[in-house]
Specification:
The radius of gyration is 17 Å and the shape is globular. α5 runs parallel beside α6. The protein is built from 11 helices and 8 strands. The chain has a single domain, classed as Metal-dependent hydrolases (TIM Barrel). The N and C termini lie close together (8 Å). The chain is 47% helix and 15% strand. The longest helix is centred in the middle third of the chain and has 21 residues. β2, α2 and β3 form a beta-alpha-beta unit. An 8-stranded parallel beta sheet has the order 1-2-3-4-5-6-7-8.
């Protein structure tokens, strides 16, 4: 049986041991997402410098594949506009981020990664930063369209208006809305189906069961960060296998297969194998 965690990080705590825990709990497939540049001690002067981040992440994914089937998602985190903006100014930061997304797109086109990640700040920012962030996000959608890949998004907390705005941006870029994945989603499966973008439900509490009560159009994730200063945050690596097994006990294996295999294959355009 395939059990997929759609969004996980490995950083400076358990590292690959986290995936061993995931496997021992029944997990089989995982999407590993790269972190911000400072997590790799990279200070980019241009978007091309993100190659050092992406290369290190891909090497990690290659090692992780010895444990479970692992896919690379290359991130230009929306918070970079704040981090890099403090050094270069926000206009320059946005330029660096756009170029970095182009680099990420090339890696996807070369088969080194299966998706990119972008978004917009989840915290309060100035109107100028918000405008620039949306320009970066629009550029990310255009790249995903050009290289024909899915895109995970880190955004503000769910609100209908915001998600509809994002869906319209994707449409404008010519990207299928369903290939836009809202990372850290609440279990509002029906709402997301109406909006068109795809929810990756955070597997806390009863979220997975609540999502399943509304349909099967979703992924599940832990957003495990692997930070030694916050062990177990956001959710531990065993969480998704545990929650998927709870799902099976209540709704049967068909829905688990739908969310962990069929949805993944359709949205990412890949074929899962055990």
């Amino acid at each position: 049986m395939i059990i997929t965690d759609n969004h996980m990080h490995l950083y400076n705590h358990l590292r690959l041991k986290a995936l061993k825990e995931f496997k021992e709990a029944g997990g089989t497939h995982v999407f590993l997402v790269s972190l911000l540049c400072h997590h790799y001690e990279v200070v980019p002067k241009s978007g091309k410098d993100f190659s050092a981040v992406f290369d290190e992440h891909i090497r990690l994914v290659e090692r992780a594949n010895d444990i479970v089937k692992t896919y690379a998602v290359l991130s230009v985190h929306p918070a970079e506009i704040t981090v890099l903006g403090s050094r270069y100014g926000v206009e320059k930061a946005a330029e660096i981020m756009k170029e970095a997304l182009e680099v990420a797109g090339k890696y996807v086109a070369e088969g080194k990664a299966v998706a990119i990640k972008s978004g917009r700040p989840h915290y309060e920012v100035s109107e100028k930063v918000w405008k620039l962030s949306n320009e970066v996000l629009m550029h990310a959608f255009e790249i995903a369209k050009d290289v024909d890949c899915a895109i995970q998004l880190h955004t503000e907390s769910y609100n209908r208006e915001g998600m509809e705005e994002i869906a319209k941006m994707a449409e404008k870029a010519g990207l299928k809305k369903e290939r836009v994945i809202k990372h850290f989603s609440p279990p509002l499966v029906k709402d997301f189906e109406e909006i068109g973008i795809f929810p990756s439900v955070i597997a806390s509490g009863n979220n997975v069961l609540e999502a399943a009560s509304q349909g099967d159009r979703f992924f599940v994730e832990t957003d495990y960060i692997d930070d030694r200063n916050r062990p177990g945050a956001v959710l531990g690596p065993k969480t998704v296998p545990k929650k998927v097994k709870e799902l099976i006990s209540k709704y049967g294996e068909d829905i688990a297969y739908k969310i962990c295999v069929e949805n993944i294959e359709k949205i990412y355009g890949i074929e899962l194998e055990l």
